[in-house]
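INFO  loader      accepted 1 record
INFO  loader      residues=365
INFO  predictor   begin
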Amino acid sequence: MQVARVRTLHFRNLATAEVELGGEITVVHGANGAGKTNLLEAVYFALTGHSCRGGNDRDLIAHDADAARAEVDLTDDDGTRTLLSSIARDGERRRLSDGSALGAVTPERPPVSVFLPDRLALVKGPPAQRRAHLDRFAAALRPARADLRQRFGRALAQRNALVARVKAGLASVDSLAAWDENLAGEAEPLVASRAEAIELIAAPFAAAAAEIGLAGEAAIAYRPRGPATAEELLAELTSRREADLGRAYLSFGPQLDEVALSLAGKPLRRFGSQGQQRLTLLALLFAERGELLAAGRPAPLMLLDDVLSELDPEHRALLLERLSGAGQTVITATEPEAIPDGVEWTSLAMSSGKVAAVPRLREAA
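INFO  predictor   done
INFO  writer      dumping tokens
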């Protein structure tokens, strides 16, 4: 499944237009401020219903407009269908598939991997962002596990609410037993899913980091904040019950797990430079892409903003070699000359929020 076209209306500085993307690698090039990153964001917004950048989604709306809209045409062996997402200044959102409202339904679409400066929070930000990213990857890898995070979250919220009621004298301490058992049962598969996902990408992550020029041994590790099995977790819940009632929240469990990223044995979150953090994020996305392909899952759509500026010519060639032959990629660059010889790619020039040149295929030299 690929994105054939993207259309925008009042989306940041982008002109109202329809843009065709290439089948494999599309390079969107132009000066700073031309709208290249905004085009990537529009594709992401159309597919997911929210921005891939920080801030309020209302910031997507052009200054003189009341709403912003982005839509994409998706093509596969069954034909073409359209996904549309919009947001209004009053916060109202719409998500449509071929004109029909989606509601809470998740539409069929390609998975998306995003490399943006805003996404560095995945490396240097709080653990919650890394947990959420890991759970999305695990769900893409094994779709049957897509609801594990939500199920555990509901169980935890229900237990926390009951703890508050017990603390307020509105419920019996004995009533916690059933909810503890339920929480432990939902925690076990979530912990197992995370552990398996990290085990799968640990070696590919280290290899990808070395290949793109990250000096030092890169590592990723899963650090759970509690027992792995339901039986052990239930015993821990029972033993800590009095303490939990005192603080009115659970002090351990999957909601506190960490995904640790390190370079040469040092945490990248604390000691990594911005350049090292950027390359780490890129290596992580490539490792996940490789495992999705190995598992027979659809290749993710790669949206890579200004990724080539961190790499020398040799590592640019290695990166683009990795991207060729499977899946679809959209890369932004200030100069098309940043693309090394030997790569076939579709050129898309932008200026002042508009496509300044008709997309054309640049064949490998």
